[in-house]
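Could you help me review a protein record that somebody else here produced? What it holds is a sequence and that sequence's fold in token form. I need someone to confirm that the token line plausibly describes how this chain folds. Take the sequence as given and treat only the tokens as open to question. This is what I was given:
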Amino acid sequence: MFDPIVAFFQRVFTAIGRGIGLVVAWLLWPFVALGKWYRARSWVIKGPIALILLALVLFYGYFVWQTQAWTNFDPDYVDRYNLAERKTPAGSPVSGPGATTTGQTAELTPANQAAMDAGTSTTEALAVAQLPAGTACQPSAIVDVAADLIDFNVDQNAWISSMLAYKLGFFGLDWDDTPWLDNKASFQRGINQAVRRTAVELVDSLGRVRGTSGINNDLQSARGNIQFDEETWYFGISPFGPKTPTPSFYRAAMRDLRKFNVSLGNCDAVFDGRSDNMVEFLDRIASDLGNTSAIIRERSELHNGGWFDTRADDRFWFSYGQLYGYYGILSAAGADFDNVVTQRGLTPIYTETMKQLRAALRIQPLIISNGREDGWIMPTHLATMGFYILRVRSNLVEMRDILAR
């Protein structure tokens, strides 16, 4: 009784199997034909072709390895800095006459006190008069973290965006437009965005006195180098000729930042840790995160193709990298502005913000899905990431408002 039904399904599945076989054969026939042609040739022709194929395998094998191996990736990397043990604001003396370990700025000499009486801040007053010989100052944790993030991007890992294989794309198609091999590049660009924003603020306000003193040359150089194009290889078309690749500029920025911190540790540079500078710093970061949130919202609302949205992973991992960078930079800012955070009662909300940043870094899906927010099959990872970004941004705005009162 069931024999005709069973026979029908057997014929259906047999037809499907033949169809799949024909498709596979159609896809593979060029390679089969090339294989036959290759076997019929002499070693004079086979040898160079084999070497070329081996070079291509090694070339793309190295590229695939670099995109998949995230060396020293650690969402808890902030713990290595032991920031909770730092009780001296950046730029304040930590040894010699006038040193302090109480979280306040250093005790002023009579010459510095005269500058204070004229209406300048403690940090500015310390910059006005010569500190006693043998004095060492506290380096900036912000600068340390920013330099280490650059090191993580271009020394501990290969900078993917400027690799030749990445620039060539997938048969001419930009890797960013495919679902493969672009996650690490987006993650690195997100970190770089956080470092760029920080470098600008270090030059414009944090590394000078009230914006009226001269710009620090090391910070100025670091800002220029870290702003360099992200995709430059050793050779370019426009303009035509050899070029200095992107990682070289970023390494120069890292060296400039470390040089500034050495000067700051020797009390030869300034870190102006006033509350209004912290207000401006938090405001710029909040604006940066707001821009990323808008990009995520646009992608989530207009291109919610679930697992088939090939650009969702770019947006997700860029945002993830940005939060990864800001987690370290904002944690460091809490140490550099320790006196401001303590005196203005920001410790609870600052601690909560760092917890929210760390919570966002726990989201590490294997495949990024940009599904509908009311969908029940495909998840919406972009909306989840956007939620964490808005939570962090909201706390930054609240801290900014508290400091501005």
